[in-house]
Amino acid sequence: MLAKRIIPCLDIKDGQTVKGINFVDLIHAGDPIELAIKYVEQGADELVFLDITATIEERKTFAKLVEKIAQNINIPFTVGGGISSIYDVERLLNAGADKISINSSAVKNPNLIDELANQFGSQCIVVAIDTRFDIDWKVFVNGGRKETPLFTIPWATEVQERGAGEILLTSMNHDGTKQGFAHDITKCLVEKLSIPIIASGGAGKMEHFRDVFNQTNVEAALAASVFHFGEILIPDLKSYLKNNDILVRL
Hints:
8-stranded parallel barrel, 250 residues
């Protein structure tokens, strides 16, 4: 059995870490380089960097900032935001990213998933899915600002078939609410797909991590503000999970 992964996320806007609720009302959450170093010291399994306004501002991810963070960490590092070509991926991998995350560009051009998987290997390609439940779970793009015609479950299935190595699943209904993860859609994708799923959106206390691992069997859980503001310390979380018979790397 693989150890469950705990992943802090740096949502970046204008070169600074921010955090909001339901993808809006963003507040400053700290210097990204300082936070990255802190998470390595605390024992995070991976780090995710998402330039959340790159797509809507029609620009590329901050490669210089990615490079500075990569120079200061020694854990797997996933970078996303404004990635739409092989060149973009090469640029970020050269800056120190281990994996890249695509979202809006994959919806706009699904063939991009195939191209990147073929060029760099599936293990390098994460597809982020921002989803909101109304009558059903739908896919959103442009930093959660735009609804698409896509339903989440068939889109996730297509993403896997096209060669993605992992899915970062964020429930917009739960994001920033600190009321717990979206167990239903997470469990559905874990059972339907063979690639790893990262649960994101809703972490507020250590019990939420325990519950999402136990109730969905998801491979990893991602959070932001509870880590950024010291509400949960990663060593404490891992000890808690271990005491609840969940396998983690200490």
